[in-house]
Amino acid sequence: ETGVTQTPRHLVMGMTNKKSLKCEQHLGHNAMYWYKQSAKKPLELMFVYNFKEQTENNSVPSRFSPECPNSSHLFLHLHTLQPEDSALYLCASSQGDRSNEKLFFGSGTQLSVL
Amino acid sequence: DQQVKQNSPSLSVQEGRISILNCDYTNSMFDYFLWYKKYPAEGPTFLISISSIKDKNEDGRFTVFLNKSAKHLSLHIVPSQPGDSAVYFCAASEAGANSKLTFGKGITLSVRP
């Protein structure tokens, strides 16, 4: 069983669809993250949760809505996305949310918006 | 404006030789640096890190060097192995709690058998 599991691995959706990405960590960590990786761009931090509380929202459009019901689960709800939102969405976790924490990433969800 | 720059998108080296992956940064407040490695269809995994109070950190075949005055760090892999073929991301953060990591675009390393 891997430390951080993301589902689905691939997702194709239309601009009017509503879908959710799921992330689960089995490492006993307290912090969870959503990152976006677009082609030929650096990983961009989207959201940070520490002990289920959101501590960072990196100016992400409201069509992306995170949810963290507990320290082990993290969701990213998607609604009325744009084609430019097509990217690899990576979930990560760490023991805490301090700057020197190692991040443990999931395998990501490759999202295509048509 | 990118604060962490990996200007070379790719590098190809012969098995057994040294791989040198470079990273430059512009933010003088960065004081902690990490390298992550990513295989296709997998998430990035932590490789090695260095604090600004050091100029070198070694872990087996991997060594990271930090030149604070030049705002430059490099990852040396020696000897390089075909299994090292992956994308390598440089990342940096400022001191203090709740500080986010800033990543570079990544360098694709290919190690030829």
Rg of chain A, Å, rounded: 13 Å
| Helical proportion of chain B, percent range | under 10%
Proportion of beta-strand residues of chain A: over 45%
Uncertain regions spanning at least 5 consecutive residues of chain B: none
Greatest interface and its participating residue counts: A-B, 27 and 29 residues
DSSP helical segment count of chain A = 0
Mean pLDDT figure of chain B = 94
Number of strands of chain A: 11
**Strand/helix succession of chain B:** EEEEEEEEEEE
Per DSSP E runs of 2 or more residues, the count of β-strands of chain B stands at: 11
Instruction: State the distance separating the first and last CA atoms of chain B.
Output: 38 Å
What proportion of the residues of chain A is helical, as a percent range?
A: under 10%
The shape of chain B, in one word, is globular
Catalogue the unreliable spans of chain A. none
Structural class of chain B: mainly beta
Shape of chain A: globular
Q: What proportion of the residues of chain B form beta strands (DSSP E)? A: over 45%
* Structural Rg of chain B: 14 Å
How would you explain this protein's 3D organization?
The complex is a heterodimer of chains A (114) and B (113). Chain A has 114 residues and is mainly beta. Chain A is built from no helices and 11 strands. In chain A, strand 7 and strand 8 form a beta hairpin. The model of chain A has no long low-confidence stretch (mean pLDDT 91). Helix content of chain B is 0%, strand content 56%. Chain B contains no helices and 11 strands. Chain B has strands spanning 4-5, 10-14, 19-25, 30-38, 45-51, 56-59, 62-67, 72-77, 86-94, 102-103, 107-112. In chain B, the strands form 2 sheets. In chain B, strands 2, 4, 5, 9, 10 and 11 form a 6-stranded mixed β-sheet that branches. A 5-stranded antiparallel β-sheet of chain B has the order 1-3-8-7-6, with no helix packed on it. In chain B, strand 4 and strand 5 form a beta hairpin. The chains are: A mainly beta (114), B mainly beta (113). At the A-B interface, strand 5 and strand 10 of A face strand 4, strand 5, strand 9 and strand 10 of B.
